[in-house]
Structure formats: structure tokens, C-alpha cells
UniProtKB/TrEMBL annotation:
PROSITE patterns: ALDOKETO_REDUCTASE_1 (PS00798), ALDOKETO_REDUCTASE_2 (PS00062)
Binding site for substrate: H118
Active site as annotated: Y62 (proton donor)
Any one Gene Ontology molecular-function term assigned to this protein's record: oxidoreductase activity, acting on the CH-OH group of donors, NAD or NADP as acceptor
Lineage: Eukaryota, Fungi, Dikarya, Basidiomycota, Agaricomycotina
Pfam families tied to this protein: Aldo_ket_red
Superkingdom of origin organism: Eukaryota
Site positions per UniProt: Lowers pKa of active site Tyr: K87
Organism: Hydnomerulius pinastri MD-312
Keywords: NADP, Oxidoreductase
Protein's UniProt name: NADP-dependent oxidoreductase domain-containing protein
Length: 316
């Protein structure tokens, strides 16, 4: 018997007092997505809303804010019943007030529930300005900037919060190192840190640090893709419980107090990801033991960097 079903998805309280459903739908249309593929997000975000999802995770850089906003309007579900997250792209620091207006206009929404700084670093895409970078990015064309710093960008995010255009602000891809840097000057403690998290990248120290600061952690790439789904420990534990590997892994995140944003375009898999079992301590510990600090989504390119920053700069 699943302990979580589409009608009983639990909520977590953010440090703002707002509640966020622990399962959200990831709305990234994939690398190399063309406009048609991005537009199709409206269809599968629509099936997710019909299946019970009340939390959608998008970003300026995904180009899917319009699809997400349209899916909500077409669903007939009142806006206040859906938690919507979007993100400030890493090449928009110094442009935060314009960027949030672009996101709101794109989505056709009056506010976002959560606005995340997508990456801690400010970058420039020479020749492309603030526009949408090409999906297949040449690593040499991304230049990290010294200014604005993450502290300066956070101060702008705090002003966006004051404006009421977003109900909460948070960060993404932050480590203990970059969070400590941010907290030196922050007036508002981030509500959320959204990071890559799955059994091969369990990040227990980051989780404990965030908990100590009242920052909720959202797991992206929560399923760990086919790499984790086919791990023999995962498949054995899933078989023993009579659930799928993805259900097992998502349940592990929830048991650790995290939010998850699995992405699926398929209605059946969307429903599957909302029906999660209870895990006992020994199962949780067996999954914890798979940690090998391996990034499956945002891993360093041929220059040893992710969007212009080294692993050392990230504190990863
Ligand atoms: N903040 C950041 O920097 C950042 C980075 C990456 C991602 N994210 C967010 O996190 C979301 C999810 O991340 P992600 O797409 O990297 O990872 P993911 O959700 O763990 O994996 C998505 C992949 O798993 C498949 N899948 C989903 N449920 C499944 C199931 N039950 N059985 C089998 N396959 C299943 C999907 O295929 P189908 O669609 O065919 O089902 C898709 O190929 C994104 O959409 C985005 O919102 C944020």
C-alpha cells in the first residue's frame, strides 16, 4: 500500500510560513529542445495537474514558463492551489528586476511562489547578451564575471521579494561554501536550496547544514536517471517492496525531508511518481550506502567547469 498517493501528497513548511507540496513536476524540456518541444510541456504539465500535481518547477532558461502558465489556466485549477517555482538564469545577474518581469510576462502570472537564483555565479554569453543561449553551448563561450557577486544578486532578489512579485526566494546549486558566503550579507535566509540529489550524490553534509539554517532542500535529477534505476541494490529493494525503482528512490528523498521534482512527459509515469511507499530504516540506510559523490546532470565539461566556474569555486 502506498503511503503517499496523488490525493495525499504531504506539504513542507518553508521559512516564510508557506507550504510547498513535497512532489513537484520538473518542467525542463531537455537539452536541445526546440520551441515545439517546449510548447508541448503545456500538454504534459496539463496531464500532471489532472493527475494531482500541485507544484510545477520551471525556469527562465528552460523556456517553458509560458507552457506552465497556460497549463494552469487551462486546467481550471485556481492559481493559489498550484505552487510555481521559476529561476533567475545565471547570465541575468545585474538584470534581476527586468528578468523577473520577463518571467511573469512569459507565464502570464501575477506572481511566482518561489524564485530561485539558478546558479551562484554570474556569467556572460559573449555575443548573445541577455538572450536565450544556444542549447548546445560551447564551453569556451561562457565567461564567469566577478560582478555582480552572489551577494549583490541576492540583495536584488530580496528587493524582488519586497515587491510581492514572488512569495519566497531561494537558491539553486549552492554548496555549504557558497551558502556561507551568501549568509554573510543576506537579510533574508533562502527558503530553498535546489540541488542535484540522488542515491549516487546523497550530499548528507549539505542536507544537515541546510536543515540547521531552516533551508528546505529540493532534489533535482531526483530519479538519478537509468543509471540509478538500474543499480542492483535499487532494483532488489524495489522488488522486495513491490514498487518500481523510481518510486523507491523518490520515497528515499521524502524520508530524508527533501522535496522532489521528477520530470515525466508520460501520464502513467507521472502517476507512478505520486504513489510512494513507506521505507523502513534499514532500506533507507541501504540506499544511503550507494553514495559515491557522482554528478549525473551538471558535471564538469572538458574545461573542468560548469557554466564558467570550477568545482572549487562551487564548493562541490
Ligand atoms: N536547478 C537546476 O539546476 C536543475 C537542474 C536539472 C533539473 N532541474 C529540475 O529538476 C527536474 C527533474 O530533473 P531531471 O529531468 O534532470 O531528472 P529526473 O526527473 O530525475 O529524470 C527525468 C527522466 O526520468 C524519466 N522518468 C521519470 N519518471 C520515471 C519513471 N517513473 N520511470 C522511468 N523513467 C522515469 C523521464 O522520462 P519520461 O519523461 O519519458 O517519463 C526523464 O527521462 C527538471 O525538469 C527541472 O525542473 C533543476
Amino acid at each position: 500500500m502506498p503511503v503517499i498517493t496523488s490525493s495525499t501528497v504531504p506539504f513542507i513548511k518553508l521559512n516564510t510560513g508557506a507550504s510547498i507540496p513535497v512532489i513537484g513536476l520538473g518542467c525542463f524540456a531537455g537539452n536541445g529542445a526546440n520551441q515545439e518541444r517546449r510548447d508541448r510541456v503545456k500538454v504534459w504539465a496539463g496531464t500532471a495537474l489532472k493527475s494531482g500535481y500541485r507544484h510545477l518547477d520551471t525556469a527562465w532558461i528552460y523556456g517553458t514558463e509560458h507552457s506552465v502558465g497556460t497549463a494552469i489556466r487551462e486546467s481550471g485549477i485556481p492559481r493559489k492551489e498550484v505552487f510555481v517555482t521559476t529561476k533567475l538564469p545565471w547570465h541575468h545577474p545585474g538584470y534581476v528586476f527586468e528578468s523577473i518581469d520577463e518571467s511573469l510576462r512569459e507565464a502570464g502570472l501575477d506572481y511566482f511562489d518561489l524564485y530561485l537564483m539558478h546558479f551562484p555565479q554570474a556569467t556572460e554569453y559573449p555575443g548573445q547578451g541577455r538572450g536565450r543561449p544556444a542549447d548546445a553551448e560551447d564551453p569556451h563561450s561562457i565567461r564567469a564575471l566577478e560582478h555582480p557577486t552572489l551577494n549583490e544578486t541576492w540583495a536584488d532578489m530580496e528587493r524582488v521579494l519586497e515587491s510581492g512579485k514572488v512569495k519566497a526566494i531561494g537558491v539553486s546549486n549552492f554548496s555549504i561554501k557558497t551558502l556561507e558566503e551568501l549568509l554573510k550579507t543576506a537579510k533574508v535566509v533562502p527558503a530553498v536550496n535546489q540541488v542535484e540529489l540522488h542515491p549516487y550524490l546523497a550530499q548528507p553534509k549539505l542536507l544537515a547544514y541546510c536543515k540547521s539554517k531552516g533551508i528546505v532542500v529540493t532534489a533535482y535529477t531526483p530519479t538519478g536517471y537509468a543509471t540509478v534505476r538500474s543499480d542492483p541494490t535499487i532494483t532488489t529493494l524495489a522488488n522486495n517492496l513491490g514498487v518500481t525503482p523510481t518510486q523507491l528512490v523518490l520515497a528515499w528523498h521524502i524520508a530524508r525531508g527533501c522535496i522532489v521534482t521528477p520530470k515525466s512527459e508520460d501520464e502513467g509515469r507521472q502517476k507512478e511518481n505520486l504513489e510512494l511507499p513507506h521505507l523502513d530504516e534499514s532500506t533507507i540506510r541501504a540506499i544511503d550506502a550507494l553514495d559515491r559523490n557522482e554528478r549525473l546532470c551538471n558535471y564538469p565539461n572538458e574545461l573542468g567547469m560548469v557554466y564558467g566556474w570550477t568545482m572549487e569555486q562551487f564548493g562541490w
